[in-house]
Amino acid sequence: MSVNLIQSIKEESHPFQKHEGVDALVSKVKNETFVLLGESSHGTSEFYKIRAELSKKLITEKGFMYIAVEGDWPACHQINNYIKGYDDTFSNTREVLASFHRWPTWMWANEEMIELIDWLKDYNSNKPNDKKVGFYCIDVYSLWESIDEIIAYLEKIQSPQIEIAKKAFSCFEPFNRRPEKYGLSASFYGEDCLNEVTKLLTEIILNKLTISDSEDSLNLEVNTMITANAENYYRTMVVNDNESWNIRDRHMVEVLNKIHEFYGAHAKGIVWEHNTHVGDARATDMAKEGVVNVGQLLREEKGAETIFIIGFGTHRGTVIAADEWGVAPEQMLIPPAQTGSWEDAMHKAGPHDKFIHFTKHNRHLFQKPIGHRAIGVVYNPAYEQFGNYVPSAMSNRYDVFIYINVTNALHPLMVEEVFL
């Protein structure tokens, strides 16, 4: 590792304490339309708490109007209605967070989220409807749940489109809500539902003006987009991992654009996702594989000057993760960062919490690719050196990087999980 890199980190970093650090970072957000808040794992308490504090400040001081996270739209629709006071189904935040029943539930059904959701509900309580802050999910996985939502709503308003929706749903019924079963059938046997979901999407878009409630219109349209994009995602996933990733991240940007359109041309949004989604893929080895992500797509589409990306990382600690897909999560030890990695360099520059703001004056100091740790929902600490470090030009990938020297695991809520 270069001695110059460690010295540059010492000279360009600033101490990060909870309140002073949050204030300092929010002051650096100027006229950006989107602030993207990353995380280097899906199971770290400090990342959630810091993102929550940043989000509250961006809402109260900078006028941001919604938070969009990496999760299932139908579950977040329950939260959105709850914090806006549109639905009294749930008596408290714990109950509404139980809407996240698809594995990995701990990403959003956790103790750390309760305080933020309570705060959002209280903040919205004395605001008119057009000034209430929203909470949305932008991921693609909720194929069957989204079809359920579409049918329930069309039945509620007695829409003539209900028969088209039921036909699309019946096409998926033989697969017993198992996406891998649908993917295999669609990819290898040509038994897909593409025509049905395309017709449904077209019908919903053409007739959305007949829906009087604009929030209901947004919900219906996004659920229909999920149906179409998830069908494509699961069909592609079996034969091409890279392209299925691209379908997923393009979908997330498409949903962000729909939310943004709903709030108006001058709206500003906060995005919570893993570093691998928000940190510009062009600054990593993902680019060589033809893989794109949300951070890259937004910078290309909106202009880099309108996007503010904050990455997160840690040297060691504990994390909530699972050792294979679909099994119960557990608290795991995060070993000290690999020698020569970005997190190792941050630690050697001083074993304390800090952040670096990458600017035109210092960006050149941090452009040499270096391994940057990424922990997913599936994790094995013993083997992380074989696949958990992404070569990254850090100052091109992010605008700010927050380093927490020692981190702790999330505190999951006990909810009934569906292992799909």
UniProtKB/TrEMBL annotation:
InterPro entries: Emycin_Estase (IPR007815), Hydrolase/PRTase-associated (IPR052036), UCP036794_erythomycin (IPR014622). It comes from the Bacteria. PANTHER family: ESTERASE, PUTATIVE (AFU_ORTHOLOGUE AFUA_1G05850)-RELATED. This is Erythromycin esterase family protein. It comes from Metabacillus halosaccharovorans.
